[in-house]
Amino acid sequence: MFSFKFLLTIMLLIILLERLARHLLVVFFFQRPLPTQKRPIQLVSILQPILSGDPTLAEGLEKNLLLITKFPLEFVWLLDEDDEEGRRICANLATKHPGKTIHTITLPPPENHQNPKMVKLISGERMAKGDVLCVLDDDTRLDDGSLETCLPYLDEPGVGLAF
Q1: pLDDT tens digit string along 114-157?
Q2: DSSP assigned state of 151
Q3: Model pTM?
Q4: What is the CB neighbour count within 10 angstroms for residue 120?
Q5: Using an 8 Å Cβ cutoff, are 52 and 83 in contact?
Q6: Is the dihedral of CA 51, 54, 60, 61 positive or negative?
C-alpha cells in the first residue's frame, strides 16, 4: 500500500497546484485591458456618510481630498446633527483645503424604522451635482488613479454600478 509520506506528498502537491491555478486566474483577470472611457465625466460626487469615533477619520477623509485623478470631484459629507466631533473634523478639513468642493450636510436622527446610512445617502444624492455618484464609507481611502480604473466600466453595456 501507499506510505504515509507518499500520501502527504500527493496532498501537498495538490494544494500547490490549486494555489498555482488560483494565482494564474488572478493574473489573467488583472491583465485584461481596461475598457475605454466612452462618455466624458463632468463631475464625480463622492458621498460619504460620516460617523465619528474612528481615530483615523480625519486622516482618511483628507487622503481622499488629496486624491490624484483626472476627474473633477465634489465631496458630500453626511453627518448626524449630534455628532460634534464629526462636524469639527469636517469643518477643519474644509478650512484646510479651501480649493476643494466640500458640501457638509447635517441631518437629524432618522425615524425608528429608517436605516441611518440610507437616509444620509438619499439626502446626499439630492445635493450631489455629479454625473457619477461614488458612495464610500467614511473609512474608505481611494488610491490615486482608482477612479480611472473603475469608472470606464460604467460605460460597458448593461453596467450601472461598479465596485
Answers
A1: 998 999 999 999 999 999 999 999 999 999 999 998 999 888 88
A2: G
A3: 0.78
A4: 23
A5: yes
A6: positive
